[in-house]
């Protein structure tokens, strides 16, 4: 039987090391896999089907705000994701919740609080700091639209947001150009967008607010 595993996804080596230490002290029976970019998160999830919980930093290379969270929730809906972020803006916390996170742990939280939050999520619960931000119907609608996309369509959408043409997207994702065209048409329809630019603006809205 494979060992239960945590995925720690953060591009800051010092914080990642500190978090791994907390996990080893409180969850000794769990194995820990690390990732430092959106791309290595995807590889780790494919290589380690035994992953039971993802601890995810929002600001990693290859990620656009909440894109990694939405991508994980779409592709692995059964695996809880806990956002760990230095951005404690109330609306960032609320959006994390609305976009499917099982928890949100500020990086400033003490080790005991982090461990308690993770334990709560592992037991099937959720853990969020007290939030002053109200639920956003616009975010709820956006999350519902994005949830309609297949994992491949989500990848194509992120490429559109980067300004890539169909030919470039085909090369980037290893697809036929005609397949990309089909995906783009489906994406625009599902997101109720009239143009690629409009879809790119929608992705831009996934960027979290400044913590300031």
Automatic annotation (TrEMBL):
Keywords: DNA-binding, Phosphoprotein. Residues 142-207 form the HTH luxR-type domain. Residues 5-122 form the Response regulatory domain. InterPro entries: CheY-like_superfamily (IPR011006), EvgA-like (IPR051015), NreC/VraR/RcsB-like_REC (IPR058245), Sig_transdc_resp-reg_C-effctor (IPR016032), Sig_transdc_resp-reg_receiver (IPR001789), Tscrpt_reg_LuxR_C (IPR000792). The modification 4-aspartylphosphate is found at residue 57. This is Response regulator transcription factor. It comes from Comamonas resistens.
